Structure to design on (606 residues):
């Protein structure tokens, strides 16, 4: 009976039952079958309030929605174009940098494709970049900013894995820059191959556009410098950034109105926070049961019989997470999968901070992986192109993405060097 | 009858929306004060952090109720694409009903949890009894269940949510479209 109900939940999940209901239902079922009062599920949910990083979630989300709704994306695009646009493949590099910036603040790639895609796609095509290249670039480059602070998935990983968010923020920087470097090199090579007209460098435009975006540009630096110097924690940085963004967009640029726009944007952002927190609350109940029932230990025993080296384990982890990433969204995947994988990875000697970076990078790559990666569907509807075209458009970028994944998986120092240097993480 | 249900549904969503807006505003102000106090005065309200974290719980669960009304909960739709179009509406209604039932069970669990703390009589901070901070859990689960029930009764399109990381995706696209 219990098995049957559990099976029904899994099938329902695949057909679109909201994930929090699936997870909450599973948690209730587990505790019921073990004869424990269902209040135990909520005891775990309430444990959310003991997490010091929790406050960072709504505050960074608020900053993200306000920034996204303002004219900041246009100002930044113009500034990046003036700074980088003169290079060979300049506009493509500009697209990559803008997507990275935007994704870091909005927490996921879907919205980057939606908001920046329709600005950048016509620009790329107009300058002479091929259709397939432009589509692939915009569809797959949402992943770029995911590892940069203050990306929401990083915060969530920190909360779920009970790992320092400060360390994770610093850990993501080099891998993200590495990714940017790989993709930019490819974009420059393609730019040359397409014989794209190069925009001459203009000192005047540079000065104008940078002055125009003078209040938006320091945002990432504000967060990184605060944490790196130890002046602020991630949660404190969230408070500062939320207040700063509100001040800049409402008072300095006056893009938005306090009365007309802000209440709606707050609701919009908190709907997102709500969809995540309710899953997190239910997932805490379920995973506490699974951990009590020694499920990770049993999986570990099973794996230990099959896999003996760290490298082989990491390879399988890569494949497993790519599959998860192409099926589930990144937030639910973190909440459900991290508690199960973390003890196993630790027993293979993988650092929790490094695991976080591997986790997020793989899940995000899964987004662009055919046949069911969500980025492909979003781009499909956004650009009005057949799915098969997008599959083919993404292939070269996926190859680069996998190369990058291997790099960050097998070179832990790439992730761990900065947190070690600044925070003394062991 | 259906008209009345929909009106209550929208009215509740409006209330949830205002509660969320007020809470977020308070959160930004208090969080900023905490940072300033800690860095300049090297003191901060010890109760401040506890209250802030509970405010997140309130905002999150009221936000979840609002998300239900807007049909924005995260879900997978790998297999749903395979369903024949004629079946999709029925399946969506069935799932709304199942979600509502699970939420009621969770609300019951949350109520029992609340009773335990009510009888225990613990305090959160600043003289606020712990149970008061926890009231939001059963209330929000009942609200979520109500919104799902309305959706199950009224039917309509399946949720258009795109799930992953869609921070303000709707808002942003709307604005981009407008500014074009």
């Amino acid at each position: 009976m219990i098995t049957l109900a559990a099976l029904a939940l899994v099938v329902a999940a695949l057909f679109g039952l909201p994930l929090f209901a699936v997870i909450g239902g599973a948690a209730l079922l587990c505790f019921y079958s073990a004869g424990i009062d269902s209040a135990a599920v909520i005891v775990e949910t309430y444990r959310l309030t003991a997490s010091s990083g929790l406050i960072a979630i709504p505050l960074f989300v608020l900053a993200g929605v306000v920034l996204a709704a303002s004219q900041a994306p246009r100002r930044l695009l113009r500034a990046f174009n003036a700074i980088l646009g003169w290079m060979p493949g300049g506009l493509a590099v500009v697209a990559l940098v803008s997507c990275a910036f935007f994704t870091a603040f909005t927490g996921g790639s879907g919205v980057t494709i939606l908001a920046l895609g329709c600005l950048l796609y016509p620009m790329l095509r107009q300058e002479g970049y091929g259709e397939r290249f432009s589509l692939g670039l915009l569809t797959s480059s949402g992943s770029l900013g995911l590892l940069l602070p203050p990306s929401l998935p990083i915060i969530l990983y920190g909360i779920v894995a009970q790992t320092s968010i400060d360390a994770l923020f610093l850990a993501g920087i080099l891998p993200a820059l590495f990714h940017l470097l790989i993709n930019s090199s490819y974009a420059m090579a393609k730019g040359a191959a397409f014989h794209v007209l190069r925009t001459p460098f203009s000192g005047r435009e540079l000065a104008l556009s940078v002055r125009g975006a003078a209040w938006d540009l320091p945002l990432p630096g504000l967060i990184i410098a605060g944490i790196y110097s130890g002046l602020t924690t991630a949660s404190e940085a969230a408070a500062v950034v939320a207040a700063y963004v509100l001040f800049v967009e409402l008072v300095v640029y006056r893009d938005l109105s306090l009365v007309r726009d802000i209440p709606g944007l707050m609701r919009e952002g908190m709907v997102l926070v709500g969809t995540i927190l309710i899953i997190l609350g239910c997932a805490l109940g379920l995973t506490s049961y699974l951990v009590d029932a020694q499920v990770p230990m049993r999986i570990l025993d099973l794996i230990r019989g099959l896999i003996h080296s760290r490298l082989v384990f990491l390879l399988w982890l890569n494949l497993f997470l790519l599959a998860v990433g192409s099926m589930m969204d990144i937030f639910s995947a973190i909440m459900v999968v991290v508690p199960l994988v973390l003890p196993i990875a630790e027993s293979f000697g993988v650092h929790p901070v490094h695991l976080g970076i591997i986790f997020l990078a793989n899940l995000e790559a899964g987004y662009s992986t055919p046949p069911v990666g969500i980025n492909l569907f979003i781009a499909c509807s956004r650009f009005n192109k057949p799915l098969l075209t997008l599959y083919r458009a993404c292939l070269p970028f996926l190859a680069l993405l996998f190369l990058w994944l291997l790099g960050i998986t097998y070179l832990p120092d790439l992730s761990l060097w900065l947190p070690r240097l600044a925070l003394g993480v062991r | 009858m259906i008209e009345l249900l929909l009106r209550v549904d929208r009215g509740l969503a409006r209330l949830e929306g205002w509660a969320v807006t007020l809470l977020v505003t308070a959160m930004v102000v208090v969080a900023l004060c905490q940072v300033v106090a800690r860095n300049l005065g090297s003191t901060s309200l010890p109760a401040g952090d506890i209250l802030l974290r509970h405010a997140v719980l309130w905002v999150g669960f009221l936000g979840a109720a609002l998300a239900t009304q807007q049909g924005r909960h995260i879900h997978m739709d790998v297999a749903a694409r395979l369903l024949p179009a004629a079946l999709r509406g029925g399946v969506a209604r069935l799932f709304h009903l199942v979600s509502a039932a699970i939420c009621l069970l969770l609300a019951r669990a949350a109520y029992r949890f609340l009773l335990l703390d009510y009888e225990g009589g613990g305090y959160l901070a600043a003289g606020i009894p712990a149970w008061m901070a926890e009231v939001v859990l059963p209330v929000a689960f009942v609200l979520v269940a109500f919104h799902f029930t309305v959706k199950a009764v009224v039917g309509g399109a399946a949720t258009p949510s795109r799930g992953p990381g869609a921070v303000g995706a709707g808002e942003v696209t709307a604005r981009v479209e407008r500014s074009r």
User: Anything to note?
Assistant: The first helix of chain B runs from residue 2 to 40. Chain B touches chain A through 78 residues (CB under 8 Å). Chain B is about 75% helix and 5% strand.
